[in-house]
Design brief:
142 residues; mainly beta; SH3 type barrels; 2 domains
């Protein structure tokens, strides 16, 4: 089993295996997870476990600043901008990734929407309101 030395969680890493190269943020291994694996968060937001004995090479690109991980955009408000109201019905799609824990949190605000689509900041003033909130995995047919 390959040991991962001198690379700490919240470092950007590139991991080369026999079949693929992965790039992401090294996360804390969950306590109940087998010690033969490490966990990284890919740019897509997904977490993957990689078996240590499959790793050929690891490059460490340094620590990710916590402020950058869950950074929110500032809103530029101008009088000439139209107002757009968005009503969120919540759930999986209206959630965001917490890069410190690797989990998702239900969330919806104008700032979070602008973080996801920065171009909106120059088009309209976004007013968001969340009226429902249920994750897909908690929904059952009647």
């Amino acid at each position: 089993m390959r040991e991962i030395k001198n690379i700490k969680p919240l470092h950007m890493v590139e991991i080369k295996t026999e079949s693929k190269v992965y790039r992401g943020i090294l996360l804390e291994r969950p306590e109940l997870m087998d010690k033969k694996y490490i966990v990284i968060k890919l740019d897509s937001g997904y977490n993957i476990g990689i078996k240590k004995d499959r790793i050929i090479e690891i490059k460490d690109f340094g620590e990710i600043k916590k402020e950058k991980l869950n950074k929110r955009q500032r809103y530029n408000l101008r009088d000439d901008m139209p107002v757009v109201s968005i009503i969120a019905t919540g759930g999986t799609i209206a959630s965001r990734v917490d890069y410190l824990t690797g989990g998702v949190h239900s969330a919806f605000s104008a700032e979070e929407l602008i973080s996801a689509v920065p171009e909106l900041n120059s088009i309209a003033y976004i007013h968001g309101r969340q009226i429902f909130n249920k994750f897909s995995e908690n929904m059952q047919p009647e």
